Amino acid sequence: MSANPRRSKDGPLGQARPRRKAPSLSRTRPPSGMSLEQWQIERRRQFGRAQDFRMTNAGDEPVFSEFLVTNPSSRRTYLVRIRGTEPGANVCSCPDFASNELGTCKHVEFVIGRLARGRKTAKLLREGFEPP
Ligand SMILES: [Zn+2]
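Above are the sequence and the zinc ion SMILES. Below is the predicted complex in structure-token form.
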């Protein structure tokens, strides 16, 4: 890993902000060394995991299942099918997923983020999908 240039940025003290694992990515260009595609995937990953969507498991499996993901502000609900953690493994019914050709979207990344937080679901997620 290279040095993080954002570490030295001075901010006003005393401002409580939620802890983040990684600095936000630029919306206008990828960081050096990152492909356009990877940058677009990472942006959805960061954005999706920061969302406060509602999520309902519509299937029988705890992880490799279908999830209804609702954005409370837009009230739109999309169906996400989880089969793994890598881009291309999963499917979402949203227009971004249909057109971005990245194999992921903020809804997919939101669900993966939630599953990765639960002890049991994180273990299942790591073990991977086994087709029946
Ligand atoms: Zn989506």
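Confidence is low (pLDDT under 50) at residues 1-5, 7-11.
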